[in-house]
Structure formats: C-alpha cells, structure tokens
Write a structure and sequence with these properties.
alpha+beta, outer membrane lipoprotein receptor (LolB), chain A, Prot_inhib_I29, 13-stranded mixed sheet, Papain-like_cys_pep_sf
Length: 292
C-alpha cells in the first residue's frame, strides 16, 4: 500500500528536537477508546545498544538488548496465570530484523515546527507531521521544551496521535502519551534482565509476537499501518469475516485495533485472569454492551 508523508510549513528555522543518546523518563499512555491509562518507565542507552521499558509500575518489564545473541533479543518478564507465576519470554532478532533499543519518544525526523503553546504553565514547542496510507490519515504532534537551549537535549511533555479516515470522513482513532521526570542519565545495571529465568518463546500466533514483545513501538511509530492493523488480516481469516462494503471493513478494522490495544494493555497489569481476541473483537463497544 502506498504511503506518503506531508508536513506543515515551519514558522521559523528551529532545530528538530533531540533527546540525547541516554535518558530516563516516566509516562502514561492514554487510550480514550477504552478509558485506559497505562503508566510506564523507560531507560534508553543508544551507545550501548540497549533499552528497558516497564509497564504498570514494573509488573511487566521489557529489555531490548541489541548486542545479545547474533542479532539482539527482547526479554520480557511478566506474571502469567496463576498470577503468582513470573515467566520470561524471549524474542530473538534476525538478520532482516535485528533488535534495536526502543525509544519512548517518536523519531522526529520528518516533523516540522507548528507553533508555541502552553503546556501546563510552560511554553512548549509543538512539532507536527502527517502520514497517509490508503484511507488512513494520521496527525502526530509532539510538545517539547528546551530548558538549556536549542543545542541541548529536548524535554518531552506530550505526544499525541489523531487518526482520520477519509472514506468514513471521521476521526476514529486517538491516543496520547504524557511524559514526566525526564533526565539524560541512566544507571547501567537497570538494563540487565534478572537472573534465574529460563526464557521461552512468546505464544502463538507468531505475527502477534512483535507487538507483545515491544508494546510501545506501535504508539511512538508514525507509520499509519501499525502492527495492530496488520493483525486484522489473520483475525478475518480465522473467523471467516466478509464485510458488505468497504465502509464496514474500515469501521470493523478500527474496532479491532481498539480491542487489541485494550486486551494487550489489560494483560500487562497482572490480573487474576487474561483477555484474548475472540469473534466479537471487531464489534464496537456499544455492540458489545448490547450483547452482554
């Protein structure tokens, strides 16, 4: 599917924000479609080719070690049923798709300065980019400050995506990340996965493993066709879905993406039960409430 990128014209000649090669930051991922607010804490070390992101106050911990094994590896430590059992899952990199450290902020190449705006009492630069693929048109905005000047690392405050479907002529997707406690230092020992675990592969289906292993990747990516969108094809095949029109297909796809995000987020909490994708995963929330 063809993809194109458009950007707004900058108002002045500002340097694109840079977050440095090492940092520690906290944040909250907000998913309005299901009233989800998921806290995380991230450590990033570009020079040593490693990163770590914890979700729900360390309930699920994800280590991305680019120098491990032949092409890097992701290790995820998380509770599984029964809730008292902690397991390690591993995803190995390949020559075609090596594991790289995962940033908690978007890659701002392609963003352009839009305006200055108040950010909870602080004047923030707002940077924007728009990507399109098929009927999907996503607008991404990043709010940052530069406390130490234009050539020092920027401090992230907020990242937001708003999706518009040109076929349905409606805004039908939105999420945001609020950042806090950003600093350009990180303790080396936080990148070492805990010892004593025998790691196993992520469960099937194989096409879901990347999004399970590296959840934040979809949220900070500016690709309008995310891993969550790519999961819609296997879902349709498994449940023999055939929609009456292209408009219905578009609506069902976004319902599915929202459901998948909700399922994965809830399963990172460490509840006494787990959620999964079923034959109602392309239903709207209103349809699900009627069924119940």
């Amino acid at each position: 599917m063809a993809q194109k990128m458009t950007t707004t014209k900058p108002d002045d000649d500002r340097a694109v924000p840079d977050f440095g090669k090492m940092y520690h930051v906290k944040g909250v991922i907000s998913l309005p479609s299901y009233e989800i607010e998921e806290p995380f804490e991230a450590w990033y070390d570009f020079e040593e080719n490693r990163s770590r992101i914890d979700y729900y106050n360390g309930t699920t911990r994800t280590f991305l070690i680019g120098n491990d094994l032949d092409y890097g590896a992701i290790y995820q430590i998380k509770p599984v049923l029964p809730p008292s059992v902690i397991k390690c899952f591993q995803l190995k990199g390949t020559k075609e798709e090596p594991i790289r450290p995962q940033s908690a902020m978007p890659d701002v190449q392609g963003f352009e300065f839009e305006k200055m705006e108040d950010c909870k009492g602080v004047q923030c630069e707002v940077w924007k980019t728009v990507t399109e693929a098929g009927h999907k048109k996503n607008t991404y905005r990043l709010w940052v400050t530069r406390p130490e000047g234009n050539y020092a690392p920027a401090t992230p405050h907020r990242f937001e995506m708003e999706g518009f479907n040109t076929l349905l002529d409606s805004h039908n997707d939105k999420y945001s990340i609020e950042y806090s406690d950003f600093c350009t230092q990180s303790e080396p020992d936080v990148f070492t996965p805990p010892a004593g675990f025998t790691c196993e592969e992520f469960p099937d289906p194989p096409e879901e493993r990347q999004i399970l292993a590296n959840p934040i990747q979809d949220y900070v990516s500016t690709n309008p066709v995310s891993h969550a969108h790519r999961m819609f094809g296997p879902f349709k095949e498994k449940f023999n879905r055939q929609y009456k029109s292209e408009e219905e297909h578009e609506k069902r796809e976004i319902n599915f993406v929202h459901t998948l995000r909700f399922v994965h987020s809830r399963n990172r909490v460490g509840l006494s039960f787990s959620l999964g994708i079923n034959d109602r995963s392309d239903w709207s929330r209103a349809e699900k409430r009627k069924y119940c």
